[in-house]
Structures are given as C-alpha cells and as structure tokens.
Amino acid sequence: MGSQVRAASRRCDPGPVFGEVGPEIIEDTLIHLATENEQSLSELSDQAGCFKETQTVEFIFLLSEKWHLDQSARYQAVELLERFMIKHVEQVCKSSRENIKSCEQGQGSSWSSLKDQIYDTFVLRLVSCVQLASKLSLHYNIVNSDTALQFLQSLKYSYTKQQLLESELAVLKSLHYQINVSTPLAYVELLLEVLGHNGCLLPAKPLHQMCMQLLDFSYLARDTIYDTLLKIAIENSTPSKLQVAKFLTVKEDFMLLAVGIISTSVFILNPGQWEQVVKHLNYITGITSQSILEFSYALLKHVVGSTTSKQHYRNCGTKAPENRIMPLK
Question: Which residues does 253 contact at the CB level (< 8 Å), separation at least 6?
Fold first, then answer.
C-alpha cells in the first residue's frame, strides 16, 4: 500500500512552477549562484572530475531511480561523492610521506595504488552520498538505513547498520557538513526563471523536461562532450597535457553547463527562438554567444550525431561553430 501511495504521489507531482517568484529574489539568487560558481572554480582541485566517470554516474542514477528520488537528488549525490572522494584521497596522501611524494610527482602508479586502497569502501561511500542527497529533498523519499543496508546486502556486502551510520558521518565530517551545495540543475532552473521574467515566451514544462534529459546525458557522456569542446577550443585533435589541465575550469563551470543545456534544449524544441535565447543568456551570464553556441554544438553532436547536428545548424541559418571558446595555445 505504501509503495502504491508513493507511486501515485510521483505521478501527480506537477514539477517546478515558473513565474511565481519576485524579481528581487530572482536577482539575489542569481548573484548567489554566480558567486558560488566563481568561488568553486577558484578553489578547484587538480583531481576534479576523477570520480564522475560514466560507470559511477550511471550507478548513482540507477540507484536514485530505484529509490524513487527526484532529479536534483541524483545530481547532488554525484557532486557529494566527487567532493568527498577528492577530500578522502587528499587525506590518504597526507597520511603517508611516500604517497605525498608520489602524488606531487603525479605518478600514475601512485594514483592507481590510492584507488586500490579506497576500492573496498567505495560502494558504501556512494550509497551514503545517495542517502545524504535524499535527505536534502525533504518533499520526496528519504532513503533510511534499512533500505540502504538491504541494498548493500543484495550486493553481498556484510556491513552493519552502525558501519552505515559511520560512513554517513565520515562523509559529513570530510565535507565539514557543507553538503547542500547547488547543482547544475539549480542553475538551469534559475536561468529558465530569469528568461521567463525577461519576456522569453517559452513552453516552460517541455523545456524544463528537455533540459533535465540533456543534463542527464551531459553527466553520462561528460568526458566525450568536453573532449569535443576542447578540440574546438584549441583547433587541434590532439591536446597537450597543459591544455587539458587548463580546460579543467571549463569542465567544472556549472553556469556554462547550464546555459549550454538551455541553449541546446531551445534549439531542439523551438529553433526559431534559439538566437534570441542565446542573446538573453549572454546578457544574463556574461558568457559569450560564441561560447554558448560551441557548447551547444558539442552537446548536440553527441546527442544526434555530427552530420545531423551540422545540417540542423544550416537549416536554422546558423553556421556550425568554428574554433574559439578560450585561448589555450
């Protein structure tokens, strides 16, 4: 009976409501997200993105779906796991002089060794991050210890409830209890609100749904999409290690990701309004129209294929992007 009620409540969920927030709140929230994004990029770890591999993201997405969590929870879980694992690896490095030296030299064998050390508890930490993410979405299902423990036992893990609680606490302590950090979905939804407030007459619900689908795809195909974007930026199919390192801030820029997701969604659903929306996004965020176009092209290329995406741009009277998003050479 309980599961039927939860299923019914999910079917009746109307989703986000746009156009109900005052301009002052919108402006304050936009400034807050922009500031948070800039601060995050300024403090970026060299290991950022290492724990957003496709298999890990897919695991979290499938587990979130199994437990009927909302969209924001799955992104929050991915970001929590990423932040925790980076902190955890840093702590392991500091605990051993040999590992510290190896990490500073950037030896692949050292990184492989560190991954081996944390492998045994990785799934436990992942489940803990999904649990914590579920608790940030109070109007949806919260994953309790019994549910999490049952899942781990189904995978032949023999953790106790105490170990599960200790794992949650370990994540919280490592992140200094700062777990409610904005995800790319928050950026997307706020920018959709701003576009509506600025007079862009777009179908809110279909556009929001398309944005979520593309955001899922961008998480799952993250490396492929940004690899294409990097090659556009440097006008070369074989980037150097330095160019890859400098491009890390682009890969972790939530505001760029959000405008790219919205731009691509509009291009798919309402191509006639695409150029107007890109101009609005440029005005709102300061991200150049060319950069937005290039991100959309990189994303669309992997959604529908390179030949189709180029033809789609031509049909809209727009040239497929040339190579200029940031000077890395």
Answer: 37, 41
Quick check: 195 and 278 in contact, CB under 8 A?
A: no
Tell me the pLDDT of the chain (329 aa) as tens digits.
444 444 444 444 556 666 667 788 889 999 999 999 999 999 999 889 999 999 999 999 999 999 999 989 999 999 999 999 999 888 877 765 455 555 555 555 555 666 666 778 999 999 999 999 999 876 667 899 999 999 999 999 999 999 999 999 999 999 999 999 899 999 999 999 999 888 887 888 899 999 999 999 999 999 999 999 999 988 888 888 998 989 999 999 999 999 999 999 999 999 999 999 999 999 999 999 999 999 999 999 999 874 444 455 445 444 444 333 333 32
Q: Three-class SS string for the chain?
A: CHHHHHHHHHHHCCCCCCCCCCHHHHHHHHHHHHHHHHHHHHCCCCCCCCCCCHHHHHHHHHHHHHCCCCHHHHHHHHHHHHHHHHHHHHHHHHCCHHHHHHHHHCCHHHHHHHHHHHHHHHHHHHHHHHHHHHHCCCCCCCCCHHHHHHHHHHCCCCCCHHHHHHHHHHHHHHCCCCCCCCCHHHHHHHHHHHHHHCCCCCCHHHHHHHHHHHHHHHHHCHHHHHHHHHHHHHCCCCCCHHHHHHCHHHHCCHHHHHHHHHHHHHHHHCHHHHHHHHHHHHHHHCCCHHHHHHHHHHHHHHHHCHHHHHHHHHHCCCCCCCCCCCCCC
Q: Which amino acid, 32?
A: H
Q: Which amino acid is at 61?
A: F
* Nearest in space to 198 (alpha carbons), one of 190, 207, 208: 190
CB 84 within 8 A of CB 121: no
How many whole angstroms separate alpha carbon 30 and alpha carbon 204?
19
